[in-house]
Design a protein that fits this description.
- By secondary structure, the chain is an all-alpha fold.
- 72% of the residues lie in helices and 0% in strands.
- The chain contains 6 helices and no strands.
- The mean pLDDT is 87.
Length: 165
């Protein structure tokens, strides 16, 4: 199976799980932010270009479902996947647990940027009193979800790590 097929399998499976399963797993009324976790972990493992492509693809898939501004998720996730990949490439190159913490912090930052940019573009009710609760819970979710996602991206792109399959 090629890296493209494995990547597509991860993206489609994550999108289906997010819409069908994770949207109902709520803590304090907050669901996990799987698409953002996909973009961030793709950037951490594959670098800026792969993070941007994965973020754009999953963001576009979620934009087809959400009643928010079309393209906002794709834009934010692509930029966030690219930025995290760039940071990993230039700064981090670190232990697995630092990547997990980066994924959680990047989730919080991504949600904050999404809410602010959405409000600036006319999408009402994104920046609310609950935003920081949502950021905290979603970051905690993605802290846990990032471990299997990092492993899935390493499986998808073995040549990034110098491995052959």
């Amino acid at each position: 199976m090629s890296a493209y097929a494995r990547s597509a399998l991860i993206l489609v499976t994550a999108l289906v799980f997010h819409l069908a399963l994770f949207s109902d797993l709520r803590v304090l009324g907050v669901a996990p932010e799987v698409p953002l976790a996909i973009a961030v972990t793709a950037g951490l493992v594959g670098g800026p270009e792969r993070g941007a492509v994965a973020g754009f693809a999953i963001g576009l898939g979620i934009d087809l479902y959400l009643p928010t501004l079309f393209g906002l998720s794709a834009l934010i996730y692509a930029v966030w996947g690219y930025a995290v990949g760039l940071l990993e490439e230039r700064i981090f190159r670190s232990a697995w647990w630092i990547n997990v913490l980066v994924a959680a912090v990047a989730t919080g930052g991504g949600l904050l940027v999404y809410a602010v940019l959405g409000e600036l573009l006319g999408q009402a009710n994104l920046y609310t009193d609950r935003l920081y609760l949502v950021i905290g819970v979603a970051s905690a979710y993605n802290l846990v979800l990032s471990l299997p996602l990092l492993g899935l991206w390493r499986w998808s792109w073995p040549r990034v790590l110098g491995e052959e399959r």
